[in-house]
Amino acid sequence: MNRTKNKIELITGLDIGSTAVRIAIGQQSFGEKGVELQIVGAVEVPAEGINRGSISSIEECVSSISNALEQAERLVGVPIEHAWVGISGTHIESQESRGVVAVAKSNGEIAEEDVARAVEASRTVATPLNYEILHVLPRSFTVDGQTGIKDPVGMTGIRLEVETKIIQGVTQHIKNLTKAVYRTGIDIDDLVLSILAVGDTVVTSRQKDLGVAVVNIGGSTTSMIVYEEGDIIHTAVFPIGSEHITNDLAIGLRSPIDVAERIKIEYGACIPKNISKKEMVDLSSVGGGVNETVELKYIAEIIGARMEEILERINTELMKIGRSGLLPAGIVFTGGGAKLSGLIDLSKEKNRLPASLGYPIDLVSITDKVNNLSFATAIGLVKWGANINQRGRGRQSRIKSVERVSGQVKNWFKSLVP
Ligand SMILES: Nc1ncnc2c1ncn2[C@@H]1O[C@H](COP(=O)(O)OP(=O)(O)OP(=O)(O)O)[C@@H](O)[C@H]1O
Ligand SMILES: [Mg+2]
What we know:
Elements: E1 8-16, E2 20-31, E3 34-46, E4 50-51, E5 54-55, H1 58-76, E6 82-87, E7 93-102, H2 112-121, E8 131-143, E9 146-149, E10 159-170, H3 171-183, E11 187-193, H4 194-202, H5 205-210, E12 212-217, E13 222-228, E14 231-238, H6 242-253, H7 257-267, E15 280-282, E16 293-295, H8 296-320, E17 331-334, H9 343-351, E18 355-357, E19 364-365, H10 376-394, H11 398-403, H12 407-416
Parallel strand pairs: 1-6, 3-19, 6-11, 12-17, 17-18
Antiparallel strand pairs: 1-2, 2-3, 4-5, 7-10, 8-9, 8-10, 12-13, 13-14, 15-16
The structure holds adenosine-5'-triphosphate and magnesium ion.
């Protein structure tokens, strides 16, 4: 029997969110039936020390991550030594670039190395001083003037050009995140822009071809990614999330934050017009300690107003790229904030596009956490890792090498951590 053929690898996704640290663990088996990814465990612990996707206290963040790691290790019964780590936050920016190289072989046949060199050449854009490149994503290639080529390997030409999308983040934030993870004693497979991993997990390539936006509504941020013709055409992270809704409710109902949070989760809805004025909720039922009743309609008015603001921000981003109301596969929502009832209908109405909830596709799972929208990022990171492993096995990891991240920062920290 060929042992390597049936080798099983564990892949860990670590999502450090503003409300929770989540870990998902996947097992990839390269068996007779091809490659299969199975989610074998998922855990979450409340997050401390993270604000708007960035770290506000390293100590607290380290302890939350360690806590999550311990739980995950107990669950799967083996130590976790490395993880694919999600990065997000409003500091992330993306920009277009291009790289040009001369094809190396004298017969003009384009090799993997030429592609890697072209992509590498596109890195030389003017990255602002305090920014670090996270991803260089090839979009399309041009060979001797023939544009729109997806995969030029094996073609013949003299001049190879690539259009790439460069995603970068503020060095300081990247360093803090890297530091917090290394302090827990695990290694980082790579830092991955969270919404990139989510996008690859919840929509099909057909949807990406048609044109689709994936939106993750988190606690303090909302991130989005837009695809068309299979390419990423836009990414954005903005600082409004579901915690803002909780805060609005706390103010509107004059109730403590944790009562407001429970009201949102248990009774929240986005569309007030379908609710009768007679429907009331007793605040004491959600631990308010106050004997007060509130109209459900009023709760939905408060939630709806903020949700509309989030939907407007999404539309503004779509307008920037000329796609407002123009994405045939519509908007796919994930993240804990997408669990509010009525979001899909409100989005269809406000943004004039199809809308749906996004659950991970193309994987099997022994935990029902795959059906929990809050786990989309952690699971997306596992899938991202699995894809890179797979590509690495097939074509000598050219994509891995160009998508590799923050090498300098990582090595710098490794040299500090004993
Ligand atoms: N059943 C539910 N109904 C409504 N809202 C919910 C529900 N479950 C969770 N939420 C909300 O989802 C938000 C958290 O979402 P998520 O866990 O995706 O965020 P995060 O990843 O921690 O934050 P971020 O991505 O901003 O760093 C919280 O504000 C929470 O109130
Ligand atoms: Mg999140």
